[in-house]
Each structure stands twice: as structure tokens, then as C-alpha cells.
Amino acid sequence: ALRPRFRIAGVFGPESLTGRSLPDADVPEFVSMRRTNALLLLICKFAMLIAAVACGGSRSASPSNASNKPAASPQATQLPKPKNGDYPGKGTVTKINADLGSVEMDHDDIPGIMPPMRMEFFVSDKKLLDGLKVGDAVDFTLRYTDGQEIIVAIARIR
Q1: Which of 153, 137, 139 is closest to 110 using CA atoms?
Q2: What is the dihedral of CA 127, 129, 132, 136, to 10 degrees?
Q3: Which of 18-22, 92-96, 114-118 has the lowest mean pLDDT?
């Protein structure tokens, strides 16, 4: 009796790693088909698992409260492009890099420029960093010019 054979070496059916078929008497047909079906089932389950993980696991989609819009957050809103000029700010020094000429601060809101955050700023002159220490509360002037920000004045608050 003739039976179909798979020709993928070593994966389906009674083939050796060389791709040559074994004699029919070595592996009964029902054993070969059982192995093939089990392997196909395993591959399908694995593919479904990968797809479920890629899609975010077992989230349930509820049409009543589903929304494609991201949640609005105050920091996600885009501020209009600032005008060139000097802007006053207040903050606390968290890091000083005298070699690079920069100061990192936890700063308050700088109206018209950015919301409160921790950020590193370059200074216009490295001498501005003289006398500053980490932890100092400071007043500073931020100069905004065509998308570039630089500290042009900084002083400890006494």
C-alpha cells in the first residue's frame, strides 16, 4: 500500500536527518501520523502563545469603555513654541559638572518653556558654577534661543 510521506528531513514522518526515507516496515503508518499530528498541534499551540504574548496577554476588550485615545496627562500636552528670550526659574541643584559646564536641577515650572522636571542645563560661562553645591536652592535665568536653552545667570537663594 502506498502512503504519503513528508520530505522535511528529521521533522515529520519516518525520515532520517539525511532526508532519506526509512523502509515502510520500520515505522507503522499510525505511529508516523500520530507523531506528525502531535508535532503540528505543538507548533500551533506555541504560535498561539507567541501571538497572545505579542498582543498583550489576556486583556479583555470591552466595547462599552474601550477608547483608542490615550489618557490625557498634564505632561503629555504640547506647549506652544516658546519665544526667544530670557525666562526666570527656581530649582534645587542635583548635580554639577564643572568640566562640561552643566548643572542638573529639579526645577519648578518655567512658564512658557517647560513643566517642572529634573533636567541638565549647560551654562553660558563655567564660572557661573563657582560656589554652587548639590542641594543648593537657586534662582536662575534660562535663555531660550531658537530651540536651544542655556543658563545665563544662577544664584543661590539665601
Answers
A1: 139
A2: 140
A3: 18-22
What residues contact 134, with CB distance under 8 A and at least 6 apart? 93, 94, 95, 96
- Rounded to whole angstroms, the Cα distance separating 139 from 154 reads 6
70-97: buried (b, 16+ CB within 10 Å) or exposed (e) per residue? eeeeeeeeeeeebeeeebebebbbbebe
Pairwise CA distance, residues 6 & 94, whole Å: 67
Average pLDDT over residues 8-23: 50
Contacts for 75 with CB less than 8 Å, ≥ 6 apart: 115
From CA 59, how far away is CA 146, in angstroms rounded?
45
% helix / strand / coil in the chain, to the nearest 5?
20, 30, 50
In the numeric block, which cell numbers belong to residue 57? 496577554
In tens, the pLDDT along 49-102 reads 887 777 765 554 444 444 455 555 555 556 678 899 999 999 999 999 999 999
pTM for this model (two decimals)? 0.51
